[in-house]
């Protein structure tokens, strides 16, 4: 018996150079603006505050303080709750929108995509001020509800958890819609036609055919939306209140007001770790339940 070894194709020097040129700038930016600051913040969070550290000069007292702080726990629970609601509402809005864009004509699709990209390019502060005006006591939403007889007096909507959720959903819709739209474009229309020809209703086609096949796009949109919501700072600062502060605001207060850099660093590290654990758990669920390659 003669065994023939199949040689793997070797990359030519020109290919390696092209790959390095494509990935090099992104790698430099990630290292310079994420990896190095994250490592320095991690080291800062392990500095002793009381001067009694172990033999390596490492102390976990800031994390112990974080775990015992009622305010931090409430802010973290509020952040998880708001992020969950934002992700859910954004998905409920974005999936039908992406499905409509796939089936719409070229003119309508182009107009919607341009609107999404313009929304991405517009200033977050300007959009938040727009929601402040819209949800104000004398704003158009209250005036409409009073005119319809739903309310007799203006309802306080701004500086609340609900206003924060609404503004974050508005901000996250493009980040959810575009990945789902890209995933839906890769689904052959013949699959839906075949299911319909076999007697499946439109709802069942979406549930049993389109939804599972679009899971990679849904996964990307959910992860982006959840991560953006967990780290949101400007939107809850402008539309929320001290009673609805999210964990990023608590960390910023430690950095900018209290000048407690080790404790603020510990809050940020905890936020990153919790977000990472939730994303990993969601990835395992999607792989096990939907058998999606994510």
Polypeptide structure, described:
This protein is an all-alpha fold. It has a domain at 70-123 and 158-289: MetI-like (MetI-like fold, Orthogonal Bundle), CATH 1.10.3720.10. The protein is 74% helix and 0% strand. The protein has 13 helices and no strands. The protein has helices spanning 13-45, 61-68, 70-103, 106-121, 124-134, 140-147, 161-185, 189-197, 202-213, 215-230, 234-239, 247-256, 261-289. Helix 3 (70-103) runs parallel beside helix 7 (161-185) and helix 8 (189-197) packs antiparallel against helix 9 (202-213). It is globular and about 70 Å long. The two termini are 41 Å apart. Mean pLDDT is 88; it is low at 1-6.
Could you give a quick summary of the protein structure above?
With 294 residues, this protein is an all-alpha fold. Helix content is 74%, strand content 0%.
Write the layout of secondary structure elements.
Elements: H1 13-45, H2 61-68, H3 70-103, H4 106-121, H5 124-134, H6 140-147, H7 161-185, H8 189-197, H9 202-213, H10 215-230, H11 234-239, H12 247-256, H13 261-289
Helix pairs in contact: 1-13, 2-13, 3-7, 3-10, 4-7, 7-10, 8-9, 10-13, 12-13
CATH top level of the domain at 70-123 and 158-289? Mainly Alpha
- Categorize the overall geometry: globular
Strand content: under 5%
- Average pLDDT works out at 88
CATH architecture of the domain at 70-123 and 158-289: Orthogonal Bundle
CATH superfamily of the domain at 70-123 and 158-289: MetI-like
Distance between the termini: 41 Å
Helix tally? 13
- Write the element-wise H/E pattern from the N-terminal end onward: HHHHHHHHHHHHH
Global structural class: mainly alpha
Poorly predicted parts: 1-6
CATH topology of the domain at 70-123 and 158-289: MetI-like fold
How large, in whole angstroms, is the Cα Rg?
24 Å
